[in-house]
Amino acid sequence: MLIGFFARRGLGQPIRADGPTTHHVKRGTPTMGGLAILISATLAYLVATVATGRLPTASGWLLMLLFLGCGAIGFLDDYIKVASQDNQGLTSRAKMAGQTVVAVAFGVLATQFFADERGVRPASERLSFTHDFGPQLPLVVLLVVIWFIVTATSNGANLTDGADGLLAGASAMILGAYVAVNLWQSNQRCGSTRATLVESRCYEVRDPLDLAVYAAAIAAACVGFLWWNAKPARIIMGDVGSLAIGGALAGLAIMSRTELLMAIIAGLFVLETLSVLLQVTSFKVSRRLTGTGRRIFRIAPVHHHFEHVGWSEATVVIRFWIIAGVFVAAGWGVFYAAWLP
């Protein structure tokens, strides 16, 4: 439906001039397809929740805030691009300001409100790997940490979205890992009659089962979207989808107390982000020292580099899916190993 709707109105994707030349044929492909992921996943979550006689939990509403809030910023960015037919949408400052508002609102609500009968709030006030550790952080520091996680993850997903099917396929695996993490935490939650561990290894989490349902809905929506987004893509996800997926992933990590573990599970996003940071740093430092402006990669993010050296887009996507799968397996392995006696 979106493909036809956007095609009739000429809402096509502009292509960056310095990108791989093989991408120039994509100019005009309907974009903002991430709307399908936002709408279908959210409706599926709400319908499933109400149909089982419940209402969304506080954690579910907060995940929705990040998912739709970051998606709204991406939608505005995409709309400016297609309206002007220029690959430059929102300015970096405007995009960062929007992400900051969403992240801070989430941080305040998740850490200061909505305690359950055990006094557990959706987000912890300490850092976490598979469990909380270290001292309780002051509110200002805590909000800065949450802001960094939300903006870094949403922008990391955005950088990964540069080849047909790459982000949709990788995100399905990463979000699938968080379905498993939250289901496991639901069965081993502190105070649960199903917990088989001593109290020191149980999980102090607020609404893991609800988070698992929403994560499953988003992962399944990514798989459905991949049917139309696989090469040659008939529709492009756009920032509305990539920023929303990254925001949802940040929320899942924060509310499942696995913020640092996410750097392993979503290791592909970390690699893509590091490639851009290294490229910019190398260019600026070498230009200042030698005046040459030398680059490490032919183009960043790194998946475009491999297209420039001759890999086909399909080869890049499949191999980067494999890398994403290795990171997901490693992250789940670390999570399970931490649970073992």
Query: How much helical structure, as a percent, in the residues?
Result: 55-70%
- The average pLDDT is 89
* Low-confidence runs of at least 5 consecutive residues: none
Q: Given the C-alpha coordinates, what overall shape results?
A: globular
State the order of secondary-structure elements, H for helix, E for strand. Answer: HHHHEEHHHHHHHH
| Main pleated-sheet profile | 2 strands, antiparallel
The structure class reads mainly alpha
Strand order in the sheet with the most strands = 1-2
Beta-strand share of residues: under 5%
Commentary on this structure:
The structure is a single chain. This protein is mainly alpha-helical. The chain has one domain. Helix content is 64%, strand content 1%. Strands 1-2 form a two-stranded antiparallel sheet. The radius of gyration is 20 Å and the shape is globular. The N and C termini lie far apart (51 Å).
